[in-house]
Amino acid sequence: MTFLSQTVARTKQAATLAMSQKARELAAQGRDVIALSAGEPDFDTPDNIKQAAWEAMQQGRTKYTPVSGIPELRQAIVDKFRTENGLLYTPSQTIVCNGGKQVIANAMIATLDPGDEVVIPAPYWVSYPETVAMCQGQPVFVPTMAETGFKMTPEALDAAITPRTKWLIMNSPSNPSGAAYTEAELKDLAEVLRHHPHVWIFADDIYEHLVYGDFRFTTMAQVAPELMDRTLTTNGVSKAYAMTGWRIGYGAGPEMLIRAMDKIQGQMTSGACSIAQWAAREALSGPQDFIATSRAVFEQRRDLVVSMLNQAKGLECHTPEGAFYVYPSMARLIGKKAPSGRRIETDEDFVLELLQAEAVALVHGTAFGLGPNFRISYAAATDKLEESCLRIQRFCGNLTD
Fold it and tell me: Going by C-beta distance under 8 Å and a sequence separation of 6 or more, which residues neighbour residue 259?
């Protein structure tokens, strides 16, 4: 009899966290490691947000909160969706969670029965399929291509839907590819979903504010209001406000679903940290200047990284619309020999050999469901990005036949 559950056995360790740990271990040996494996802004949380947290502590707001969040934050979420996205929710249609991951987990636990299917475009964030599998659901992957900007086509979506499909998970802009769907592209996908009324939409908008150039962000419930009654629109303060450690995510959707998610969360963690909730309220309601400033820096970094990677021998890097990731292909390097003498047969071989040879930590694309690619997070200081790209260029140049 095995002590650990089958859930543990079928759950994979997050590749992003595993690579970050490898980078820490190499750094502990004295190597000058540049870790570009984690999706975490290098900026500090804005001072007004930290001040709001301090004031909350001074005012004794350190007790348990309602499971779904303090009323003030839930109202701020309602206001944010109305002013920024044109979506009309009530506070009872919102929920505050311990990070974006808990929004996903709450929704999946509340709705999935064994064998239910969830359509997930690939490449995908590593936690989507694992969360579905932990709930005994079945992930159904829809591969995308660089030629289509790593975006799912309406035809591919339609082909993936079956009578057992419960959810479609949409992440735009995307982790790991940075791909973002235009309003027209979302409308085309919505047209497919109109013909499948049993399919719900999970819109993960965590990178909403990180879009570049003339790109205009829109979300599914915004472009297809008739789907709003089966859409869970989710977001958080981690990426746009550099608040990853504060652990506040939130969602809005039909009250029936929100009540079910509240029930699940009440038995698992109860409410999110009270102090972090007051900080998040300030993030959503206070000055928004930080977003434009950081977005301009991220756009400059994106352009730098894309340019330098496309100068590396054997790499091809698509220019993404948003987030802070690029997802280059290293297909032309398959079969090459690394300086260690090892033959590179997979994208995982590539990132492991790069880590040993040049002390740059990346994440291989097959961990995100689509290779041979790798993900670089450019949420790091510009000088480190430039140095890491020079090291990648050198590594690629040193590969032999």
Answer: none
Instruction: Return the residue matching tokens 């040996």.
Output: 29
For 209-268, write each residue's pLDDT tens digit.
999 999 999 999 999 999 999 999 999 999 999 999 999 999 999 999 999 999 999 999
366 to 17, 209, 272, 371: CA distances (angstroms): 15, 27, 33, 5
Name all domains of the chain by residue range, CATH numbers in brackets.
Answer: 6-44+290-396 (3.90.1150.10), 63-285 (3.40.640.10)
Kindly give, in sequence order, each residue whose CB lies less than 8 Å from that of residue 227, ignoring residues fewer than 6 positions away. Answer: 190, 193, 194, 201, 220, 221
Express each pLDDT in 80-122 by its tens digit.
Answer: 999 999 999 999 999 999 999 999 999 999 999 999 999 999 9
Crossing angle between the packed helical segments 100-111 and 127-134, to the nearest 10 degrees: 30
Amino acid sitting at position 271: G
CA atoms within 13 A on the CB side of 183: 10
